[in-house]
Task: inverse folding
């Protein structure tokens, strides 16, 4: 059976249409959803992500303000910038682009974002809400992965989902999301990480396999079973002199070999990435709907 290519761009476009309608209704009430993005330093990948977020805001008619701060900014000044947006009436969502420079304590910064405007869902309060089964703002990448699975009819209910990676932005919140005792979740979840002995032993049991390791080729064909649904979250730059940029983007999964065995798989780029951005837009719309 031919493998299904899970098209994140197409699903994201469909969600954008729904969001556009919700934004129109808000505007009829005199409310323009507003997103503040704070970028510290000049990390090239972060700049690309921030530009894409701003472009999508423009496309949807969401007011966006991007604040670019120098890499050597003090933590106190960064916190002041967050406070400014916490009290700004025209801003409903605040996002601090990660990673932050080493001299800044990421936890302190994220905890400073108002829980009502925490559209990334990383504030410990919102992390806890998800953990106890009362999610408010679900982190964008896990939320996007779940939407993709649902869209293609790959419901996690009763399935064994194996996640490679336990980061606070992908692996852990996704596990908490899939564990919810609600329809559309309710999965049996295994999380793997660098402390896992024999990764392939676990990945080969997955009915749905999500890989968020940040390592190209972390999962190869011999590590998966026939008919698995694969969500490749990884975005890695590998040198490629045949491209104008000198690199190309690849995921964490060896696409060519794994797609021979999988029932469905996400490409990189064009899989999870567009979903992450559109879920950020969705959380911003939710914030505007609930804060007004
Ligand atoms: P991260 O914070 O570096 O976490 C990576 C996780 O993978 C860690 O838990 C690590 O284990 C685990 N890991 C690494 N190598 C492994 C291996 N060989 N075997 C088993 N586990 C391994 O990364 P992240 O922020 O979660 O991001 C992961 C990837 O997804 C990156 O490529 C990132 O660019 C991409 N990403 C994409 C999107 C998108 O929208 N497309 C969004 C977010 C992230 P330890 O905990 O033991 O170190």
Result:
């Amino acid at each position: 059976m031919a493998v299904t290519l899970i098209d994140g761009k197409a699903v994201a476009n469909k969600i954008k249409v729904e969001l556009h309608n919700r934004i129109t209704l808000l505007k009829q009430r005199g409310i323009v959803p507003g997103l503040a993005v704070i970028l510290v330093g000049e990390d090239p990948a972060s700049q690309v992500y921030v530009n894409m977020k701003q472009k999508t805001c423009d496309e949807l008619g969401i007011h966006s303000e991007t604040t670019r701060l120098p890499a050597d900014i003090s933590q106190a000044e960064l916190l002041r910038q967050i406070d400014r947006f916490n009290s700004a009436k025209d801003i409903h969502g605040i996002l601090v682009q990660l990673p932050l420079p080493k001299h800044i304590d990421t936890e302190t910064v994220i905890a400073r974002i108002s829980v009502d405007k925490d559209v990334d869902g990383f504030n410990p309060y919102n992390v806890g809400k998800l953990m106890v089964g009362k999610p408010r703002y679900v982190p964008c990448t896990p939320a996007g992965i779940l939407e993709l699975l649902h869209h293609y009819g790959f419901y996690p209910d009763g399935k064994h989902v194996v996640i490679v990676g336990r980061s606070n932005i992908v692996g852990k919140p996704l596990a908490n999301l899939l564990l919810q005792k609600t329809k559309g979740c309710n999965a049996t979840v295994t999380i793997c990480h660098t402390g896992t002995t024999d990764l392939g032993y676990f990945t080969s049991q997955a009915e749905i396999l999500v890989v968020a390791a940040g390592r190209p080729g972390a999962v190869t064909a011999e590590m998966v079973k026939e008919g698995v649904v694969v969500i490749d979250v990884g975005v890695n730059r590998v040198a490629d002199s045949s491209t104008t940029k000198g690199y190309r983007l690849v995921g964490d999964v060896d696409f060519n070999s794994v797609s021979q065995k999988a029932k469905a798989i996400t490409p990189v780029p064009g899989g999870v990435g567009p979903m992450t951005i559109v879920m950020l837009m969705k959380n911003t719309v939710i914030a505007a709907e609930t804060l007004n």
